[in-house]
Fold:
Amino acid sequence: MSEEKLSALRHSLAHVLAAAVRRVYGAGNVKLGVGPVIENGFYYDFDLGEIRISEDDLPKIEKEMRKIIGEKQEFVRSEESIAEAIKIEEEAGQPYKVELLHDLQQKGTTAMSKISGDEKSTEGDDDDITTVSFYTNGDFTDLCRGGHVENTSEIPANAFKLTRVAGAYWRGDEKNPMMQRIYGVAFATKQELDDYLKQMEEAKKRDHRKLGQELDLFTFSDLIGPGLPLFTPRGTVLRRQLDNFVQEMRDEYDYQEVSIPHITKKDAYIASGHWEKFKDELFRITTREDHEFAMKPMNCPHHTQIYASQVRSYKDLPIRYRETTMCYRDEQSGELSGLSRVRSFTQDDAHVFCRVNQVEQEILNIWDIVDRFYRTLGFEELMVRFSTHDPANMAAYSGSEEKWLSTEKQLLNIITQKLGDNYENGVGEAAFYGPKIDFMARDAIGRMWQVATIQLDFNQPEGFDLTCINEKGESERIVMVHAAIMGSIERFLSIYIEHVAGKFPIWLSPEQLRVIIVNDSENVVRFATELMNLAKESGVRAILDDSNNSVGKKIRNAETIKVPYSVVIGEKEVESGGLPLRVRGDLAIDGREEKSYVPGQLIKSISNEAKTRVSKSSL
Structure:
């Protein structure tokens, strides 16, 4: 089934959902919001007054939807003037539809400026509209632009499912009434639906928010505030190991580490162009002297000023700065989600200042780092999206279209050199200051995520007047290359924790070895202490479990927190001097024989595995 037909099917199901809710709860009790198509499905927003829909109610709504589908209702289109449409909706007692129509009449648009969650509404701008359309199926009529099947009989009754109910402010504005949003998923066939639901069930088990608590990686506090994650010692080890890997590879290409403050005068963002684009998303600070500052939402303007602090010769270029630092954005509460959408996030950021003829090699170097990083972490194949400007919306971008086209041509040459035509086009996905190479990774359960990005920026060097002195002694405009390998560490961790289901490879594991003692006899404690000291000397992250729990409970605890290696030490091990090793199942090599290791040999082997970042145990 084509994307267009699938979208029509899902849009039709949104109308069927609204009709079913009116039947179940009484048409007079239901005030309608909007019901757009979203990724994999649809939703509809309802105001039912005091009536509350729970997920236990979804099966009876589904049943009514299937009844409507079985009635073979046609979708019939009609048109009315905006004035007549307002009258119709007022008589029907639909204030939200009336509000949309007034906006269309007065402002020429029904577009929502903010939408709760990550979904993108199909509502949009409507230029020079004087009439609107309604669609009727059965006894239900809804204000709608269209995009439907001709008859409900075309909808596979066994290929959709209502999934959840959530609160959503009308038009995404917390000052507006809270509505009840019913989500559904829909596909062309039952098999596709079953596959999707199976994937979602697996996703629940892998949910990084759940695993983050179980594995003691991060937490949130109401006192600190939503969207501000607090990383535990274990979670901090994980973050640091990932970042160290990125920076080791950058050091191979002579990146230099820099440090910048976390607040900045608004002037910097006016010069960079960020203020006009993102001023409503900034945490703002007014000083006692009435100067306006902002918590930094990005790092590039700061790095430009380090570059601009000296006169640069072409012989100095490329200059490569790297920094892992936190940024801040005033996300709305309804948009926050675990680590994937936060208000404070850490970027493994880097900026290259170079001449135009150096761009290709610098981007290829970054691409090498991206490939090595994701391959090591088990993302075998990365898809590439060439993110360009939208020629129909040049007002959204800085710079002339001529400059955009020449810059995109340069970036496309690099992509085709690497991949031929094996890439996706992302028209309108560019940053406002330049085109991008976006890397997409498929996780263990088949979901695609946008991860690393390389951005070519010709606008900020203009805004900040960044130059070098060329061979002729003349001032020459340079360009910037932005590169974040993980993007934000928080968001990457939300993806990676779910990708590996919390079973981190040995080199990343916050705890690499659990030492379990059977009893606290002097010999056993001494032997375990010697082993712990060896681990510390070799940089192996080990924890001693000398609790009063039973040995079985200690072993289960190590398994629950997904420790790669554990050893149990009793009098028998002290006497023999050998340690039987328990290896986490996903790390073990098939056909592995049970072996006993002397302490020095065991610690050295674990240390070597961590240093070489192997994905399987060699023990």
